Amino acid sequence: MIHGMSTTHRRASVAPKRSAAEVNEEIRALWLRSGGTLSGEQRREYQRLVLEWAAASPRAHSHTESAHSHTDSSKAA
């Protein structure tokens, strides 16, 4: 009965991407909760959030596009 199995649980477990502003708010809340000093676990959470923020940041996308266009133009020269 493999054909009768549902795959919706896999789709539901994938979290939708958050905006850079949403992630930034979570970073700010983490710092407020910690009182300005992060424990080891909080530091790992902070690092994960910073990476998520960078991926969601519009500047990160425009920087990547600029880098690619710069590389392409330098190859032509």
Furnish the topology, listing elements before pairings.
Layout: H1 8-13, H2 20-34, H3 40-56, H4 58-76
Outline of the structure:
With 77 residues, the protein is an all-alpha fold.
Question: What does this entry look like structurally?
Answer:
It is a single chain. This protein has 77 residues and is an all-alpha fold. The chain contains four helices and no strands. It has helices at residues 8-13, 20-34, 40-56, 58-76.
Order of helices and strands: HHHH
Task: Give the percentage of residues in beta strands.
Answer: under 5%
Q: How many beta-strand elements?
A: 0
Shape: elongated
Largest sheet: none
Mean pLDDT: 75
Number of helices: 4
Structural class: mainly alpha
Low-pLDDT regions? 8-12, 66-77
How much helix, percentage-wise, in residues? over 70%
Rg from Cα: 19 Å
Q: Give the termini distance in whole angstroms.
A: 60 Å
Key structural traits:
77 residues; mainly alpha; elongated
